[in-house]
């Protein structure tokens, strides 16, 4: 018996997961004090909180964004996607 492959017109579409890991990680390291990495991930409230904290503490709270950027970049692609994009974990 010969196996037949599905025709190209008959195959289900491939769903591509949009992973923003590198973008969010780099923005977190460079512009963490502005909370831009939060806005990229769709966390508007957390981004505003990060921005306000940085203004109130004269930028010292920017260390949070720096640490988050490093955490983002050290996670595996799948772990990052499941945690921050599917699970919507806002902080660390």
Automatic annotation (TrEMBL):
* Membrane-spanning residues: 22-41, 47-73
Whether Transmembrane counts among this entry's keywords is yes
| Bilayer topology term | Multi-pass membrane protein
Q: Where found, per UniProt?
A: Membrane
Keywords noted in UniProt: Membrane, Transmembrane, Transmembrane helix
Q: Would you tell me the Gene Ontology cellular component terms?
A: membrane
The answer on whether this UniProt entry bears the keyword Transmembrane reads: yes
Q: Name one Pfam family in it.
A: TM2
Xref: InterPro entries? TM2 (IPR007829)
Domain TM2 as annotated: residue spans: 18-70
State the protein's name.
TM2 domain-containing membrane protein YozV
Give the species this sequence originates from. Flavobacterium circumlabens
């Amino acid at each position: 018996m010969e196996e037949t492959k599905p025709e190209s017109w008959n195959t289900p579409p491939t769903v591509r997961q949009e992973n923003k890991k590198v973008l969010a990680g780099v923005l977190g390291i460079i512009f963490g004090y502005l909370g831009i990495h939060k806005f990229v991930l769709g966390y508007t409230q957390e981004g505003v909180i990060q921005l306000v904290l940085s203004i109130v503490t004269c930028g010292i709270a920017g260390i949070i964004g720096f640490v988050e950027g490093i955490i983002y970049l050290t996670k595996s692609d799948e772990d990052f996607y499941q945690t921050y994009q599917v699970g919507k974990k806002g902080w660390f």
